[in-house]
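Quarterly update from the structural biology core.
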Amino acid sequence: MRRYPCLMLNILLITLDQFRTDCLSCAGHPIVKTPNLDRLAAEGVRLGRHYGQAAPCSPGRASLYTGLYQMNHRAVANGTPLDGRFDNIAKAARRAGYLPALFGYTDQSIDPRDAVNAEDPRLSSYEGVLPGFEEVCGLKPGAPTQWIEWLEQKGYSVPSDPMEAIASESDRHEDLSLSAFLTNQLIDWLEKRDGPWFAHLSQFRPHEPFAAAGRFGTMYDPDDMPAPIAPSTDRHWLHEGFLRHPRLAAPTDPAQMRHIKAQYFGMISEADYQLGRVWDTLERLGQWDNTLIIVTSDHGEQLGDHGLLQKFGFFEASYNILGIARDPRPNKARGTTVEAFTEAVDIFPTLCEALDVPIPAQCDGLPLTPFLNGEAKPVWWRDAAHWEFDWRFSFIRRGPHDWPRDRRLERQNLSVHRSENAAYVHFGDGSTLAFDLAADPTWRTPLVDPAARLTQAEGLLNWRALHLDRTHTGMLVEDGGIGRWPPINGTWKQERP
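Predicted structure, tokenized:
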């Protein structure tokens, strides 16, 4: 017999890949239109300063799903195995009595220790399924087989290369897009539910290739696009390396960059349109007011800022991500915007509280529950955001390559401490950067005051010290049993850790 939380909530976790937080009309964007996300924010909470913890996809999602910073989960690249011993969102949902359903992908490489043998097919791709999820419609961007077959059955000719197939979306009606297909699968599944459910909708858009589906490809005029933030002339060597990278450097032709922006905005509006179909379905089924919805992303998009595309390095645009949550239960949070620093690692503990299961000791994140209830920022809340990036993925893939700067892998990383008025970047090779965000929020003005730089460096050091692995530090084995310290709800001993 399944056990459900006392209010029998449905849970819908949605990720929109590579979605910058500022690309919302409800956040004041002057061009892009997102009426359905705006509606969700009006009935819930918009996280105005929400940050992912790592890039690219696999590291960012590992933090989202486990509640762990990258320095603890150590999934540093697409293809780095996620330790199978870690708890995660899907496992917690199962403990609460749900069978968590996946529509899309989670991009988590299997722990090789859990493989059947060396020929286990799960070892052949980084686009693995997070343990605990039931793959109802597994649609991996690198192999969107079901979608392509669906199009071919309808008589459409589709390029065999997956990225080319996705890039061809602009040649077809938006109802035939990858996002539309996955939305159809979720809606069909919802139609058959007769009890509380947990679903994860993981949409690929607005991830590149920059080609919006159907009418969304012409929705925005390239001539209306704002110019990106120009790169500084005084640059760190890593930034310089990215500007020379064939896939990471933004085009220098302004017309080409304006086209990319218009397509990115179109992909956002198309993703928003598909979410509107989900909202309509939940209302039609009488489940809108019984479903907790969280919409977020794994990372952001540079979109030409600082001369870059995609989601690499240390700049804020790659990590400041979409965050909206709607709790259907009565609360005072309707239509509010949280200006406190929130992070992807907060989603797991938040869902644990919604599912009425204990928050695992491993979690680095904090439950967003006070904000969802319309309460003031707790005294114990963080005063800065943090993210990490491991750049070996950008330069070193397969075969012989020149190693950038240093041969030690441990030095191919950076950590960022982003406070209210400053940002501090510490690189694995010992170099540092600091930016005065009070004077210039574009991350182009150095913070030169030694005392202010020291304060930021101490903030980063304190953050790392505070979040050392503590899986077993809260446990004691004595008096004939194992217990958790401090006691939870006055309970000391328990049957298992």
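The longest strand covers residues 336-343.
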